[in-house]
Amino acid sequence: MARFRSKQRSGACARPPSLHAWLCAMVLCAAPLGQAHAAVAWPGGARAAVSLAYDDALDSQLDNAVPALNKADLRASFYLQLSSPTIGKRLAAWRAAALRGHELGNHTLFHQCSSVGDDRSWVQPQRDLASTTVAQMRDQILLANTMLYAIDGRSERTLTLPCGDLLAAGQPYLPAVLSAFVAVKAGVTQAPPASMDEVDPGAVKVITPVGMSGKELIALVQAAGAKGTMVNFTFHGIGGDYLSVSASAHQELVDYLAAHRKEYWTDSFINIMKHVKAHTR
Fold first, then answer.
1. Where do the structural domains in the chain lie, given as residue ranges?
2. For a disulfide at 236, which of 84, 86, 111, 243, Cβ 3.0-4.6 Å?
3. Hey, what CATH topology would domain 31-278 get?
4. Helices 214-227 and 247-259 sit at what angle, rounded to 10 degrees?
């Protein structure tokens, strides 16, 4: 399974392939994940669903993404690394985001990624997934759910695996926690799914749009609309921090979704996946 780009805090990240190449390869690149779904009818007759998600609990998300989303009356998902300094320093802001209808998702306590693989020298030894057991990850992820409950009072949750890594000390850890979540994000893709047959709620693939323009982001939404499927964006920095998209590109996407809200159902990932599961049984 594909891995997320490494989350180095310093150093440049390679720009993704051209949008033209992505859209031309939509059908060829997508691979079934083993759980078939019928076509999904989206609320209000929308052409597609759009999930805007933001990983790592970053300052630029509170400073730039949340105000833009609130102004446009759009709901999104924020996956919190519970050990992030922004949790303690800006707890009231995260709680306020939840009160506005945004989802606070589980991104683990310590954002463990594996040191095994290319470009993983940044992984700290005490947070190395390669030396963390499945039992330890299970305990930490369930504790993270409890901490999130203390912030927003919600009991249902979704999870995004840090770096898309699936193995803890060489063993799969997702099966140990899967039952605690409505859905899980695991792995990356370059385009929206060609059909909902490719979407497994236990391993939903995401697009990580580092450095993309507003036009490129909108083109991916329109590609999902052409297929009647969904697009799952996972952002990090918005106009700052790392793995960033500019604030202006993000604003252009938000403005487009607000202006076309009848065509594209933009909601939290948990709400979208609850709808998918309820309408594909």
1. 31-278
2. 243
3. TIM Barrel (3.20.20)
4. 40
